[in-house]
Design brief:
The complex is a heterodimer of chains A (343) and B (262). Chain A has 343 residues and is α/β, with parallel strands linked by helices. Chain A has twelve helices and 14 strands. Helix content of chain B is 78%, strand content 0%. The chains are: A alpha/beta (343), B mainly alpha (262). Chains A and B meet through helix 2 and helix 3 of A and helix 1 and helix 5 of B.
């Protein structure tokens, strides 16, 4: 396996009481310094895998290694080098932001003075210095994620686990969190993120594993995964005095572009001519020149690339939102454990 | 190697202390400890005023019913507030803060001990307030200052036992509602005692039930310190009952806790 891997997972299985197989024999690794993401719907097994790596849950079988330490045998060693920001943030609502961070520092073995200094630094880092004296319970959703992130950073972890760090946030707060995460990764922290948002995985991650029903169905860079789905799509509208004339022009254009080697296919749709190309951006100038040289007037052109939604659809046969209602499997098991739900 | 071990041993105390401090700040706020104290004070004043003349029946070892009652008032206060420990633990578990503590490189038992210490602190505070009310009512403590300190210690340790019980219920039921309402189960333990009259005045099944209830012996030991002074036989019995109860419940609590956090 990869020598500079900081996380190594082999044949990991987690079965919850009641025979719910949350993680079904997955194997993957994350390189040191990488920004890695688990993309999948609710209940896919993302949080469960992360909780096993974070030493919060025991796997049923298989092996999980973080920085050379086995999660079962040496959890304390792992705890010292990882930070964990949670989905349902485990915050202390009755503590002030500063108190929360100081407490985190103390729990990681700092002296009172060190913990104080570190709290000041972190409050500044996540731009919460102004509200540091306010109770966490009064924080907005975005502020809560930021204080949680700061709490996970208190001991300068080498690996940061982020369980759906921006779920439920407004777009502006989400962008702010993304900025923080990118910066942390630039400083060399290995990032392991779970998300059910395609754009989040696409924007942040260098490498993604798509996980569905406890199994990894695809793995690669966002670009390579999208490339597997197919190339880009260029939709061209052409001018014509009436529908018939326009149709004739479209057919002419179809025949012309079909000659080009970079074109995988072209067909006429309602909006105009739809051309499948390998590299959309690079081919558009040539397409336009070709059409204008042949006296075809282009009135509109749009270019679209495949998204990770298309990737997910290709590998699972479903869109990621289809499964929304099924709920998060850890939460389900927790609620069962709490006796709040009966099967 | 020894140095490392010692360091680990030291850090458990340190961590327990930090978690204790945090729990105090979060769970020991006026809104949670004032109502039970008000209830205890009210019970005390009401019963003491209602039954002033009951000591004329004889066998009370004192003329002052307020003095007779004070130990039981302390006992019911710590028993009833035992449920808080389980409630606090479950709330932290559900909010996810418990996970946050487990993620830290600390001994997981410091989380449990931090919670139990809060229970002991609450027991002491309740005893202090009730004793202050008793002093205001003119009760004279035969055991003296040392007796008063012993009562406070009793309250702390006995409170610990009931907090263990509520943590056991919390870990077993995993339900805040069940844990909160479980204090209703403690009612018989509190009332089937020599709460209001001495044993001599009891009879029938009630007397039998009173004699098998461990709370009776703790109440009597504490009462002896108040109204008679250092009656060693009664006090030592009370100490034994308390120690055995705390011992057993602590072992069960630790065992269950280890299973849940493993």
């Amino acid at each position: 396996m990869n020598n500079n891997a900081i996380i190594q997972v082999e044949n990991l299985v987690k079965v919850y009481p009641g025979d719910t197989k949350a993680v079904d024999n997955i194997t993957f690794s994350v390189a040191e310094g990488e920004f890695f993401g688990f993309l999948g719907p609710n209940g896919a097994g993302k949080s469960t895998t992360m909780k096993i790596l974070g030493t919060l849950l025991r796997q049923t079988s298989g092996r999980a290694i973080v920085d050379g330490y086995d999660v079962i045998r040496e959890p304390q060693k792992i705890r010292r080098i990882i930070g964990f920001a949670m989905q349902e943030v485990g915050l202390d609502d009755l503590a002030t932001g500063r108190n929360f961070l100081v407490m985190q520092g103390l729990l990681y073995g700092m002296s009172r003075k060190e913990a104080d200094r570190r709290a000041t630094e972190l409050l500044d880092l996540v731009s919460l210095s102004d509200v540091s004296h306010r109770k966490v319970g009064a924080y907005s959703g975005g502020m809560r994620r930021r204080i949680d992130l700061a709490g996970a950073l208190v001991h300068n972890p080498r690996v940061l686990f982020l369980d759906e760090p921006t779920t439920g946030l407004d777009p502006q707060s989400r962008l702010a969190i993304w900025d923080h995460l990118r910066n942390l990764n630039k400083q060399g922290i290995t990032m392991f993120l779970t998300t059910q948002m395609m754009d989040e995985a696409d924007q942040l991650c260098q490498r993604i594993a798509i996980i569905d029903r406890g199994q990894i169905v695809a793995e690669g860079t966002p670009g390579s995964l999208k490339a597997e789905v197919g190339g880009d799509m260029v939709v061209i509208s052409v001018a014509g005095e009436n529908d018939e004339e326009r149709r004739r022009q479209e057919e002419k254009a179809q025949a012309l572009v079909g000659e080009r080697s970079y074109v995988d296919g072209a067909h006429i749709i309602d909006r105009g001519l739809c051309v499948n190309v390998k590299n959309g951006g690079g081919t558009v100038p040539d397409l336009l020149k070709l059409l204008s040289d042949n006296d075809i007037v282009v009135t509109d052109l749009s270019l679209s690339s495949p998204t990770l939604d298309d990737v997910f659809l290709k590998y699972t046969g479903r869109t990621i939102r289809d499964d929304e209602a099924s709920g998060d499997e850890y939460g389900q098991a927790m609620r069962q454990w709490m006796g709040l739900s009966r099967r | 190697m020894d140095g490392v071990k010692q360091k680990i041993g030291m850090s458990v105390f340190r961590e327990t202390y930090y978690i204790y401090r945090r729990n105090l700040r979060v769970w020991f706020v006026p809104a949670t400890f004032l109502p039970p104290l008000f209830m205890s004070g009210l019970l005390y004043v009401l019963f003491a005023s209602t039954f002033t003349e009951v000591t004329n029946l004889g066998g009370f070892s004192t003329e002052d019913y307020s003095a007779f009652l004070v130990s039981w008032i302390i006992v019911q206060a710590v028993v009833f507030s035992g449920g808080d420990a389980g409630f606090a633990l479950l709330t932290d578990m559900m909010s996810g803060y418990f996970d946050k503590l487990l993620l830290a490189p600390i001994n997981r038992f410091s989380i449990l001990f931090g919670s139990l210490l809060v229970a002991a602190t609450r027991g002491m505070l309740q005893a202090v307030v009730i004793i202050a009310i008793a002093l205001a009512l003119g009760v004279s403590f035969q055991g003296g200052i040392l007796g008063i300190l012993t009562l406070i210690l009793f309250a702390a340790v006995f409170g610990l036992a009931w907090s263990c019980l509520s943590i056991i219920i919390a870990l077993k039921t995993k339900s805040v509602q069940a844990t909160q309402s479980s204090f209703l189960l403690f009612f018989p333990f509190i009332f089937i005692t020599t709460a209001f009259v001495p044993e001599e005045l009891l009879s029938g099944w009630f007397k039998v039930a009173v004699k098998v209830n461990p709370v009776t012996y703790v109440t009597e030991a504490m009462r002896a310190i108040v109204i008679e002074g250092w009656v060693w036989s009664t006090i030592i019995t009370g100490v034994w009952v308390t120690v055995v109860m705390v011992g057993i419940l602590m072992i069960v609590t630790t065992w269950l806790y280890r299973r849940v956090t493993a």
